Amino acid sequence: MNNSQIWFIEKSEHGPDLKLFQARFDYIKNPRNGITEKKVILSGGNAVNVIALTVDNKVILVRQYRFGTSSYTLELPGGLIDPNESPLTAARRELEEETGFTSGEKWVSLGKIGQNPVFMESYVHHYLALNVLQTKEQMLDTGESIEVISMPLEELKTRWQKGEIEHPHSVNALLRFFNSPYYGK
What is the pTM of this model? Predict the structure, then answer.
């Protein structure tokens, strides 16, 4: 990429605090036409989600209400990474808090993806946890109400292929998993 293709940030302004995210307004010059536009950027930290497999090849999922779409979604457990927390530590914590399941077994990184590169500067890290067991009770935040569901892996794959898994972070993690050497073992 040459310098004529670089989008230059002329200035930034703080925007509103949105609880999970901090808004910022960047004034960015378009290298194609020289016009500067005000763009909103959300900063909120990185997140994780977990494909948690039991010994009998069931996946631990969560069903929860999502305010943006005013609907219940079936998705992988996950959440935001706390300050000074590694993605793997956050994945272990989120799985335990949301489902009560833990794994001392193998954890595998399935990579990361931008949460929404259009206006967010953060990533979602995907993990696979093998041989999970329910060892604890859920420890939900005050704003959460989560139903834990255990689903056979092949049923999940069929539902994913039919578009019944709608959360884009779960869709991407499952895409990576179903195309990995860990699927089918």
Answer: 0.90
